[in-house]
Amino acid sequence: MTQSENETYRVWDRSVRVFHWVNFTSVLLLLAIGLIIYNGKALGISAEAKVFLKTFHVWVGYVMVLNLLWRYLWGFVGSRYARWGAVLPFGRGYFSELGAYLRSLAGGEPRRYLGHNPLGRLMVLVLFVLLTVQGVTGLVLAGTDIYYPPLGGWIAGWVAAAGVDPATLVPGDKTLVDPAAWEAMRAFRKPYITLHEWVFFVLSGAAVLHILAVVAAEIKERSGLVSAMIHGYKTPDREPEDRSE
């Protein structure tokens, strides 16, 4: 038995834990609503229902983006294991640590970590990039689809027909828009919706992979990985490699 066996460490602070579960819930909702919208024709969804779903999707998206922005800030000012130096796959010695972890994983006895293990850091980077791309493209689409902030006012002013108050435009109704301006706006929108849709599928796959990796690590490492995101504490069965970083 090592000296640290069964020793309990406080790892995840409250901000990290709240961010994690708000992000988990909002992304799950966004993926579910997005899947329904994407298959709207096949599901027989009416135009009015589609506007409602897009509106709900946007409001949940606002929650995700604000939560993500807070996490970006917290990565600079938060507790030790919340900071970017302990979360992202950068910094001196990362690749040697990654090699050591992969060798230990192949040997059936993975090295223990209080924060994210080296593979987990790579996944965190991928997830943050994907979430950021979805957030940015989603904010653009919120303006082009239902005239919501931050670009909705500008989009409405762009497509409104001459003499029409942009504030009176109704999502899904093209009777008050200028046809040429509408087509130009849709051309502007196209690369954003294409990227949003592609990242939707990549993010779905990454989320599934992340959950499977967490389950595998929970079973193999027995350090309370999932419960730590609820109460903040880990109890590794061996000396953690990042205890003295």
UniProtKB/TrEMBL annotation:
Single GO term (MF): heme binding
Key words of the record: Cell membrane, Electron transport, Heme, Iron, Membrane, Metal-binding, Transmembrane, Transmembrane helix, Transport
Protein name: Cytochrome B561
Entry's Gene Ontology cellular component terms: plasma membrane
Domain Cytochrome b561 bacterial/Ni-hydrogenase: 11-232
InterPro entries according to UniProt: Cyt_b561_bac/Ni-Hgenase, Di-haem_cyt_TM, Hydrogenase_cytochrome, Ni-dep_Hydgase_cyt-B
Keyword presence, Lipoprotein: no
Pfam family, one: Ni_hydr_CYTB
Membrane-crossing segments per the record: 20-39, 51-70, 122-142, 198-219
Localization (cell): Cell membrane
GO BP terms, alphabetized: respiratory electron transport chain
Keyword Metal-binding applies: yes
Topological category with respect to the lipid bilayer: Multi-pass membrane protein
Annotated organism of origin: Thiohalobacter thiocyanaticus
Stated family: Belongs to the HupC/HyaC/HydC family.
Signal sequence interval, chain numbering: none
